[in-house]
Amino acid sequence: MLNWKLLFLAIGLSFALALPAGAQSETIVVETPWARATPPGARTAAGYLAIRNTGAEPDRLVAAASPRAERVELHEMTIADGVARMRPLPDGVAVAPGDAVVLEPGGMHLMFRSLDEAFAAGQTVPVTLSFEKAGEKRVALPVVPIGAGPPGGHRGAGHGASHEAGHDARR
Ligand SMILES: [Cu+2]
């Protein structure tokens, strides 16, 4: 009887040791990445995606980079006195545990500066996202035609995406 208890204890311990390392790489999930095509000669472009934090710790998107642009900034669109303005997000994009944040037109976005060439529909733009805790994540942003929405035709997580309690039930 004692042997069985020891065996279960050993199995439990090995799971406890193995889980955190395995789970860590999946705490940040990037969904619905996309970018919009730009007119020929454009020097800037915007990219969008949703970031889901399935972990127990807060995390933060702190930087982004792409071979298609000299630099990629994290921006937010705000309306002040009826005028739309973009401002950099010096603190990045925080994602609370169990929450999701959506970068979408009219809100937060990735800003590609000094493009190598205009984004054309049908292309795929590689981006490396750097998270404070989850580290680097590589994503590919499909480019949709000018004026189009996210690939697939739906609005993805859409507005108020921070209240998607339904997704928590899957875990
Ligand atoms: Cu911008």
Q: Please, could you describe this protein's structure?
A:
This protein has about 170 residues and is of the alpha+beta class. The protein has one domain (about 25-155): Sandwich (Immunoglobulin-like), CATH 2.60.40.1890. The protein has two helices and ten strands, in the order H-E-E-E-E-E-E-E-E-E-E-H. Strands 1, 2, 3, 4, 5, 6, 7, 8, 9 and 10 form a ten-stranded mixed beta sheet that branches. A hairpin with a 3-residue loop joins strand 9 (about 125-130) and strand 10. The longest helix has 23 residues, at about 1-25. The relative contact order is 0.23.
Give the SSE map:
Blueprint: H1 2-24, E1 28-36, E2 44-53, E3 59-65, E4 69-80, E5 83-88, E6 93-95, E7 100-103, E8 108-115, E9 124-131, E10 135-144, H2 165-168
Parallel strand pairs: 1-10
Antiparallel strand pairs: 1-2, 2-7, 2-8, 3-6, 3-9, 4-5, 4-8, 9-10
The protein binds copper (II) ion.
For the record, give the distance between the C-alpha atoms at the N and C termini, rounded to a whole number. Answer: 34 Å
CATH homology-level superfamily: PCu(A)C copper chaperone
Query: How many beta-strand runs?
Result: 10
CATH topology: Immunoglobulin-like
Tell me the fraction of residues in β-strands, as a range. Answer: over 45%
Our Rg estimate from Cα atoms comes to: 20 Å
